[in-house]
Amino acid sequence: MAKCVVTGGAGFIGSTLVRKLLEGGASVAVIDNLLTGHEKNLFEVRDRIEFHRIDIRDAAALGPAIRGAEVVYHLAAIPSVPRSIDDPVLSHEVNIDGTFNVLQAAAQAKVRRVVYAASSSAYGDSETLPKIETMLPRPKSPYAVQKLLGEYYASVFHSCFDLETVALRFFNVYGPRQDPSSPYSGVLSLFMKHLLARTQPTIFGDGEQSRDFTYVEDVAGLCIKASNAPGAAGKMYNAGNGGRFTLNFIWDALQKMEGVKLEAKYGPPRAGDVRHSMAETTAAVAELGHAPQFTIEEGLKRTLEWYRQTQPAAAV
Ligand code: UD1
After folding, report:
1. Please, which residues have CB within 8 angstroms of residue 23's CB and are 6 or more apart in sequence?
2. How would DSSP label each residue in 93-158?
3. How far apart are CA 243 and CA 278, in angstroms?
4. Which residues line ligand 1 (CB under 6 A)?
5. Do 11 and 178 touch, CB atoms closer than 8 A?
6. I need a labelling partner for 57 at 20 to 30 A (CA). Which of 26, 104, 262, 296 fits?
7. Please, are residues 107 and 39 in contact by the beta-carbon 8 Å criterion?
8. 225, part of any domain
9. CA torsion 110→13→231→152, rounded to 10°?
């Protein structure tokens, strides 16, 4: 059974990937420091995985945990644009130094391939839509810079150290297990929380900014495809759906699903925010076999159902 390592495996996307890998028969080791991830995210699979409570800033600890792995999925990160502005040192150390440590440990352990979770934020505010991989990056926040640097490092580990790497630029991933408890949480998890608690969400700006919201199962599936795709080593691909929806549209759709009327509050636009984001998916479809399964309606429905079952209204 091939051993896979998932850094950030107790996080929202990582824990979905862990389940998919187990379903496919892999043996899975998780590396997570539980700073933003939670062991409860791995609840029913906990006894089927190896769990290493390791911080990726701790280079010496990574080697033994990665040894023997065929593939490393590197998802551990401090994943937030505003958090990288409020606390740039922490996000720099985790997202850049930590990524370097993971790549270095993987190269030393002779891992076959590393799949790196990059970010659509690297595109910044370039006018053109959809965002295509060949565009010049225009990062607008420390987070965007950090994730972009990780891509460059991944590519250089391929060219200089003979480590196969594939970077996937995630586009606003949402779905079950996204933690809504922090002000830095992804907007759709916050929308779900407010909808079920019947409280008003705050929309930063006019709500007409748009995102290529991508359901977590589709992203996890693409990670696995990227681990095997021939000819992909050293490259970067968009991991989005190729559509975009405004925050106003989504909040409206959620109210309709729930049969409630709750006006959102509007606040000033957030620093470092990108106006519109949408992926060009041609390369990922052609070269990785990307085939997103979930429409926004289906994804929202499933996500809402998960929050309804797991987050009692009184607690949100
Ligand atoms: C960015 C990246 C994304 C990355 C994520 C990590 C872009 C286009 N996308 O997401 O690839 O995975 O960082 O965190 O850069 N908002 C509200 N009210 C809230 C919270 C957020 O209106 O309570 C707004 C934000 O101002 C933003 C949008 O919702 O316009 C999405 O915000 P968020 O979910 O934090 O993700 P991005 O910053 O777009």
Report:
1. none
2. IIIIIIHHHHHHHHHHTT-SEEEEEEEGGGGTT-S-SSB-TTSPP---SHHHHHHHHHHHHHHHHH
3. 6
4. 79-81, 119-121, 170-172, 186-187, 190, 201-204, 209, 211, 247, 270, 273-274, 277
5. no
6. 26
7. no
8. yes
9. -70
In the reported structure, the alpha carbon of residue 254 is separated from the centroid of ligand 1 by a whole-number distance in angstroms of 18
d(CA 98, CA 95): 6
Asked if residue 135 belongs to a domain, the reply is yes
Could you give the CA distance from residue 239 to residue 300 in angstroms, rounded to a whole number? 18
152 alpha carbon – ligand 1 mean position (Å): 23
* Mutate which of 211, 213, 237, 275 for ligand 1 pocket (most atoms within 8 A of beta carbon): 211
Which domain covers residue 93, as residue numbers? 3-173+215-239
pLDDT number for residue 314: 44
Q: Is the pLDDT of residue 129 over 60?
A: yes
Neighbour-count burial for 167-194, b at 16+ CB within 10 Å, e otherwise: bbbbbbbbbbbbbbeeebbbbbbbbbbb
Percent of the chain with pLDDT over 90: 96
Do the beta carbons of residue 52 and residue 65 sit within 8 Å?
yes
- Give Cα separations from 34 to 49, 202, 306 (angstroms): 16, 28, 22
Query: Among all residues, which ones are annotated catalytic?
Result: 143
Tokens encoding 239: 């991991």
**Number of structural domains in the chain:** 2
pLDDT digits 0-9 by tens, 220-239: 999 999 999 999 999 999 99
Please report, rounded to a whole number, the percentage of residues in the chain having pLDDT higher than 70.
98
Residue 183 falls inside a structural domain: yes
Cβ-contact 194, 262 below 8 angstroms? yes
Helix (H) or strand (E) holding 4: strand 3-7
**Closest by Cα among 238, 269, 274, 272 to 142:** 272
> Residues 180, 300: one domain?
yes
Query: Is residue 196 in a domain?
Result: yes
Instruction: Reply yes or no on whether the pLDDT at 50 is more than 70.
Output: yes
- Whether residue 89 is found in the same domain as residue 53: yes
pLDDT for the residue numbered 127: 79
